[in-house]
Amino acid sequence: MRLVDFLSNNGSELLVKTWEHFYISLFAILLGIIVAVPLGIALTRIPRVAGFVIGVVGVVQTFPSLAILAFFIPILGVGQIPAVTALFFYSVLPILRNTYTGVKDVDKDLIEAGRGMGMSSWERIKGIEVPLATPIIMAGIRVSTVYLIGWATLASFTGAGGLGDYIFLGLNLYRPDYIIAGAIPVTILAFLTDLLLGRIEHKLVPKGIQQSEKAA
């Protein structure tokens, strides 16, 4: 009954909190894609540096999320900016690692064929390497996005809003209805976003690769 009462009294606010949670996560993952995909491609050109860079990013991701949030608050203040910045750091590793692996493992014969056709390095990246690596890159983006939607509950500590407000308020007040009202939309949001990214992946992956995967 408490949950029903909560929804009847806070239904509109719940929608606002869900939207806040979504765009905080979305902004962070978009920043991660913008940084990690080009960096992953660039690292395939300098493999000696790749291991070091990916290792450093991996170490950063092992830092406790609350510690990263606390680190950025004195620099960026409170609100959504420190929350998005902290989530951005957590988004980078899966996307970077998958982009590097996917592009690096593209069949070298295909790259040589492109070079033999007179394609420039940029044309080979755009026309051969990235399209063939898209399934692996998208896998990293999907994993990172699902994680970020869950981690975005911690944005409540910086006053950024989102569904974490309900979860932590429920913990402080010993109100399970608040906790459930925050946790269930997070789960649904992660599930729906993953489905949407799956559809986007299906559109981006070349049909030849999809057919070969089905045949395998």
Automatic annotation (TrEMBL):
Top-level taxon in the UniProt lineage: Bacteria
Where does the protein principally reside? membrane
InterPro entries, A to Z: ABC_transp_perm/SBD, MetI-like, MetI-like_sf
Keywords, A to Z? Membrane, Transmembrane, Transmembrane helix, Transport
Q: Which residues form the ABC transmembrane type-1 domain?
A: 18-197
Q: Where are the transmembrane segments?
A: 22-43, 50-73, 79-96, 132-158, 178-197
A Pfam family: BPD_transp_1
Membrane topology per record: Multi-pass membrane protein
Q: Where in the cell is it found?
A: Cell membrane; Membrane
The family annotation for this protein states: Belongs to the binding-protein-dependent transport system permease family.
Spell out the protein name for this chain. ABC transporter permease
Organism of this sequence: Pontibacillus salicampi
Taxonomic lineage from the root: Bacteria, Bacillati, Bacillota, Bacilli, Bacillales
